[in-house]
Each structure stands twice: as C-alpha cells, then as structure tokens.
Specification:
311 residues, mainly beta, AttH-like fold, twelve-stranded antiparallel sheet, ten-stranded antiparallel sheet, 0% helix
C-alpha cells in the first residue's frame, strides 16, 4: 500500500471512507455544546450497472442527549482523482488526501462543515495495510488516527464554532457479505497520545473468528497487537425499540499491558436504515478509562457494532 496514491477510489467491489469524531464549542450566546459525528461514503461497484454510492451521516448531540442520522444514495462514475478522493452523495461531500479532508453534510436540525488535518502518519493495519477479514475475506485498510478538526455545526439554526479530535478509516476489497459475518470495532484515542484500533469479526452465529489490533504510539509508530492478548467483553446490553436488535452496551477491553473500560456517551446511537438501504447498526461516541502499563488513562473513542446476519 502507498499513501497518498491509495487514498483515491479503487476498482474493488466494496470500499468506504469513514470519519468519526468528537467536537465541542460555544455559540454566540456563550452556551457550550458537545457532539459526536459520523460521516461515511460507501462505494459499491457490483450492485448495479453504474457505481452505487451511499452516504451515512449522524450527529450525537451530547448537550441535548439526542441522536439523529440519515442515509443518502447516489450513482456516478468512479472519480478519476489520483492520490486523493472527491466524493458526494446528494449534497453531502467528502474530499481530501494526504491526511487532510473537508466534510459537509446536513440533517433537518444540524449542518456540519469541517476541516481535518492529521498530526500523525497513516496507520497501515495488518501486513502493510492488508488484514484478514474472517469470513468476509481480506481487506486493504489504513487509518488516520489523530485528526485535528475545526469547523462549524449549525445546531437548530444556531452556528457553533467547533474544534475537536477525529479519526478516519479507509477500507476496500471484495467482501463476501453473503457469509452473514459482522463485527465489533473500536477506535480509541487516549490523552497520553496513544491510539488503538481493535476489530473483532464475528461469524453468522456471533462467535468471534478474527481478532485484529493496532497500537499507534505518540510518535505515530504502529505496532500490530498479538490477537491472543486482545479481547472484549460486553458489560451490558441494549435492545433497540425499533429494530429489536440487542447490542452490547459498555465493554471491557484487554490489550497488551492494560485494560480499558468503554462507556457509551448515549445509549441509543443505532442507525436503523433497514427501510432505506437494508442495514441497521450501532455506531456511537464513547468515553474510555482504564490502565495501561500501570498508569491510569482516559480518552475518547467510537464503537461500531455491526451485528451478524442470521440465516
């Protein structure tokens, strides 16, 4: 894998560019605001005669205690943008390269405009950016794990200048979704400057069949974690009143040299998109605490629970 060449769209059947983050700011009246956000663009090349793009956008408003989301489809030829990407789904846009990006998306009560700039090199997961993906096959995968964010959220008509910390994932490959596999995924950004990516791939029965982990140190150096020393345990559960899906809600995560507690900042952060794009998953802002190397740590993160699909 080569960056920035591989930031551009590929010809693989499945690909996604994915941003999450934590933002805070003060409006003109001095009222503080705190948010989580998710914006992702999926590219599918084998579902229709023309490429299919689907955008997901969600805002976790931690000040109001609310969660809003939408999905927007689109279709157009794969952009020819060497060493960068410039994607759109309807009026939502995502563009960047070399660890920089600009995002724009809107919901009925929120509008996001964000600029992102990395402070660390890209983290190439697995074998120089190729990971085993359990029943799904293999995947190309890298992340920008430390993105400084600045911009504006228009919150119910009120502009809020925001700053914060974001994370970006880019994956592509030919994935066998017919296996019914799912996953639990964690991005963890600690105040001591370390970041962790943890991936637990589950088969159709829900059993974890592939465990992956990457540590990014303060300087940006990456280390593949021994899967036998990485584990997760759900400490609670939450059942969606709309889909009936039961998700883990709160987790204990073991990593080499430490243990972390991951707590949802809002219990209901489910994107129920079954009626529009045929998927439902839990994707949410979380808080992190625990101990690494004998020292207490705190931080923020995002967790995605993509439940296995039973036969």
């Amino acid at each position: 894998m080569r960056i920035p060449r591989d930031e551009a769209p590929h010809q693989d059947p499945d690909e996604w560019w994915y941003y999450v983050g934590h933002l805070s700011g003060v409006d003109a009246d001095g009222h503080p605001h705190c948010y989580g956000f998710e914006q992702v663009v999926f590219q599918f090349l084998d579902q229709a005669p023309e490429p299919v793009y689907v955008g997901h956008f969600a805002i976790t408003d931690l000040t109001r205690g609310t969660f809003q989301y939408e999905a927007t489809p689109d279709s157009y030829p794969v952009p020819d943008t060497p060493a960068e990407f410039a994607l759109h789904t309807g009026d939502w846009t995502m563009a960047g390269g070399s660890g920089k990006a600009k995002l724009h998306a809107a919901l009925p009560e929120y509008e996001l405009d964000l600029q992102l700039q990395t402070t660390k090199p890209a983290a190439l997961h697995g074998d120089h950016g190729t990971i085993p993906y359990g029943p799904l096959g293999t995947s190309k995968y890298y992340s920008w794990t430390s993105l400084n964010a600045t911009g504006t959220i228009i919150d119910h008509g009120v502009p809020v200048k925001v700053t914060g910390l974001s994370w970006s994932d880019h994956q592509w490959g030919a994935f066998d979704f017919s296996t019914g596999a799912g996953w639990d995924w964690f991005s963890i950004q600690l105040t001591n400057g370390k970041q962790y990516m943890l991936y637990f791939v589950r088969d159709r029965s829900g059993a974890i069949v592939e465990t992956l982990g990457t540590l990014v140190d303060r300087s940006g150096r990456t280390t593949n974690l021994n899967p036998s020393r990485v584990s997760e345990t759900a400490t609670g559960s939450w059942t969606s009143p709309t889909t009936g899906i039961t998700y883990g809600s709160g987790w204990k995560v073991n990593v080499p040299g430490g243990r972390l507690t991951i707590t949802p900042n809002l219990v209901d952060q489910e994107l129920d998109l079954l009626s529009t794009v045929g998927v439902a998953y839990w994707e949410g802002s979380v808080s992190v605490s625990g101990e690494i190397g004998g020292s207490p740590v705190t931080g923020v993160g995002y967790t995605e629970i993509n439940p296995p699909q039973p036969s």
